[in-house]
């Protein structure tokens, strides 16, 4: 790793290695969660790395720590699982972008497997993301999904950020708690959910009724579209209901991650999940 830096910018939210002058472009440092490669994902930050260390389904390949981080792990009885490399904070700074808050922990790990949509539990809630590409937003959505015990997040293989780097940091450990189902075609995935008894509710400002007035039932799939574009036409047509979030203030729209947490709260409250 000493010949490359990782920046949380690039196509599809992927961090890319900076190449030294005169070098040909390098291969991506890691791959999609759904891809069947041996490429590692990059995890940094206290919650992100410690949750990965405590997840038996996550294979850790390499762990780089500062002395302070190593001491804190020992004090909190968190096993490193692999022999860590102890470095100065500047060494981790050098491997990441200048704005990356790593707190002295950097890990390379295998991607987590992407479950099949047919294996999802037919209870509770799932979230479906229609081409939401900002890794900060998807990470924040993952964190909210973990807080509301969402069973899974369904996203597309293309036009979505990879489960690594910035997204993992924004999720603050939620990657280890909420399965991510990667599909090739979202309309077909929604059709499969409909056939399995899910109520698929798309969130759109042009929805026919407010979400709080929809007769919600389990299992519930809430479908969120990208900021600006919203839900694609075929996605809207495949949902069983298209609803809106009515706001009392002058601004009627929300950032997609905020819309996600509000819709999850409405869904969990209406389904009685808050009392479980």
Automatic annotation (TrEMBL):
GO CC field: cytosol
UniProt xrefs under InterPro entries: Alpha/beta_knot_MTases, Ribosomal_eL30-like_sf, rRNA_MeTrfase_TrmH, SpoU_MeTrfase, SpoU_subst-bd, tRNA_m1G_MTases_N
Gene3D superfamilies xrefs: 3.30.1330.30, 3.40.1280.10
Protein's UniProt name: RNA methyltransferase
NCBIfam families recorded: rRNA_methyl_3
Superkingdom per UniProt: Bacteria
Entry keyword annotation includes Ribosomal protein: no
Region (Disordered): 1-36
Protein family membership: Belongs to the class IV-like SAM-binding methyltransferase superfamily. RNA methyltransferase TrmH family.
Spans traversing the lipid bilayer: none
A Gene Ontology molecular function term of the record: RNA methyltransferase activity
Keyword DNA repair: no
GO terms classed as biological process: methylation; RNA processing
RNA 2-O ribose methyltransferase substrate binding domain mapped to chain residues: 42-115
Organism encoding this protein: Bradyrhizobium neotropicale
Alphabetized PANTHER family for the sequence: 23S RRNA (GUANOSINE-2'-O-)-METHYLTRANSFERASE RLMB (PTHR46429:SF1)
Pfam families per UniProt: SpoU_methylase, SpoU_sub_bind
Organismal lineage: Bacteria, Pseudomonadati, Pseudomonadota, Alphaproteobacteria, Hyphomicrobiales
Entry keyword set: Methyltransferase, Transferase
């Amino acid at each position: 790793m000493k010949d490359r830096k990782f920046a949380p910018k690039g196509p599809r939210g992927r961090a890319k290695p900076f190449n030294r002058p005169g070098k040909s472009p390098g291969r991506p440092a890691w791959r999609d969660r759904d891809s069947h490669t041996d490429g590692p994902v990059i995890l940094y930050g206290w919650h992100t790395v410690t949750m990965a260390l405590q997840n038996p389904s996550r294979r850790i390949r390499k762990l780089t720590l500062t002395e302070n981080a190593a001491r804190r792990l020992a004090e909190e009885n968190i096993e490193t699982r692999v022999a860590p490399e102890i470095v100065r904070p500047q060494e981790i700074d050098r491997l990441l972008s200048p704005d990356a808050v790593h707190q002295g922990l950097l890990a390379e790990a295998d991607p987590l497997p992407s479950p099949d949509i047919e294996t999802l539990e037919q209870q509770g809630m799932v979230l479906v993301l229609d081409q939401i590409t900002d890794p900060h937003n998807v990470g924040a959505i993952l964190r909210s999904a973990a807080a509301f015990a969402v069973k899974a997040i369904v996203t597309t293989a293309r036009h979505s950020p990879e489960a690594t780097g910035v997204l993992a940091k924004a999720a603050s450990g939620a990657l280890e708690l909420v399965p991510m189902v990667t599909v090739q075609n979202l309309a077909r995935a929604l059709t499969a959910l409909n056939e399995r008894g899910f109520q698929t509710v798309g969130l759109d400002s042009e929805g026919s009724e407010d979400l709080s007035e929809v007769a919600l039932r389990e299992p519930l799939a809430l479908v969120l579209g990208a900021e600006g574009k919203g839900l694609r036409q075929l996605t809207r047509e495949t949902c069983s209901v298209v609803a809106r979030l009515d706001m009392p203030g002058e601004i009627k729209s929300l950032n997609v991650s905020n819309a996600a947490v509000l819709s999850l709260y409405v869904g969990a409250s209406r389904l009685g999940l808050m009392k479980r």
